Amino acid sequence: MKKSYVAVGVVVAACAAYLGAAAVIGHQVEKNMRAMSAAAQAEWPTIRLTDERYERGLFSATHTVTLRVGCEAPDAAASAPRDAITIVQHVKVGPLPGFKGLGAATVDTELAMDAATRRQVAKVFGTEQPFLVHTDVAFSGASHTHFSIARFHETGAKGEQVDFQGLTGDVDSNASALEYDVRMPAFSVTDAASAPAGVTLTVKGAHMHARAEGTGDLALRPSKSQGEMQLMEMGMAMPGQPAHKFAFSQFKFAQDTTIDKNLMNAVGHAEGVGQIDDTRLDRIEMQATMKHFDALAYRGLMRRLVNSDPGTCGKTPDPAKLMASPEFQSALMQVLAANPELSLDKLVVQVDGKRAELSYALGVNGFTAADAKQPLMMGLMTRGYGNVRIKLPEDWVQKSLVYFAQQGGKDSGAGDQAAMAELMLGKVVDQGYVVREDGMLRSEAAYKDGQATINGKPLGRPAGGAGNATAAPM
Length: 474
Prior knowledge:
Elements: H1 3-43, E1 47-56, E2 60-69, E3 85-93, E4 105-111, H2 115-125, E5 131-137, E6 143-149, E7 152-155, E8 161-164, E9 167-173, E10 177-190, E11 198-213, E12 223-237, E13 244-260, E14 263-276, E15 279-294, H3 295-305, H4 319-324, H5 326-337, E16 341-351, E17 354-364, H6 369-372, H7 376-383, E18 384-393, H8 394-407, H9 414-430, E19 435-437, E20 440-448, E21 451-454, E22 457-458
Antiparallel strand pairs: 1-2, 2-3, 3-4, 4-5, 5-6, 6-9, 7-8, 8-10, 9-10, 10-11, 11-12, 12-13, 13-14, 14-15, 15-16, 16-17, 17-18, 18-20, 19-20, 20-21, 21-22
């Protein structure tokens, strides 16, 4: 056999192998994309998949999905026009997708728009694409997606303005985890039309990173997230009132969620500095905890409350009937049976070396099947518990009372208002609702085993004076 025949045979064999690999990979890519559509439909029932087409060639394919977002009234006319979103994914299959690298596939995603829609979009985004999504898929099934939303500046008919400086993000997914990273440089909204009244909002330097372990339902996956925001500032003004400004900066937050036998536990922490009008907040710190929440039942409750459950979608919700429905009651009892607790472990605000502290906890302990047979409120009164603790610098409270008296249009002078504030404070201290201690005011209210207490004393009984040593410590 001549060498040329051998070379041709090798080329033909290589091409056949490549075509065979491309066909196999293309088939697997189609199978995976259809499975992802079905999984998304199951997890978000208010996003209804109304049409799906997959047109596969030898080296490329086009995946077209049409969605309708939101609830659709069951008695709506079949011919009534409804808003739809069509997403087109341009797929290049491996083993050399687009002949630009080794992998199972690359996917570029876009919105299908008619000419009229494109003209409207161009008015906002100009010549830039509104958003770009590119995904690289490895042979292992792992994928990396980069997406971006273009910046725009829009001025409304009444002078209001929206300035969005774009958003970018990356998503990595494999058999063991889902991880994403999102950044937004700046965003602002200005309502200038109603000056001197109006609202302004500015956010700068927002960044969030999260990782969920495992596969399957996101509601049942342990996760960790963290993020930061350089600045969030809001201005508010009402006619005839002075303008107010609220700002938070150097803001950082994190959350750690664990799952144990469908029970979700989460701890969130946030801290930063801020400003309210001319008062600088030297420190703001908060920690909150969620314990023993049945993840599936809790998700079912939330879906019904926001009217996104498949059984209630499209129907006008009646809160009383919703909470009385067997499905809602069953899910609620399942949540309560896990003895959940929601707590604000601490909220600290520090100004000029002085700090205020607030914490609370609400929960259920020992909820049984017998309790579930009773009226809900009776079960909660029997098995529920809660407490709230607060500690404030006394001069902050006095100044606040004087301020609200002034805002209320009181004609008395500052001295009379201060005296009135002291009289009010003295009254609640004498009644035992508040304890004075080294320039601080503190109080604790609690409920447990059907008994409410204030500073350690049963509610309704005299506390024995402001200096009562038996008052519960904060």
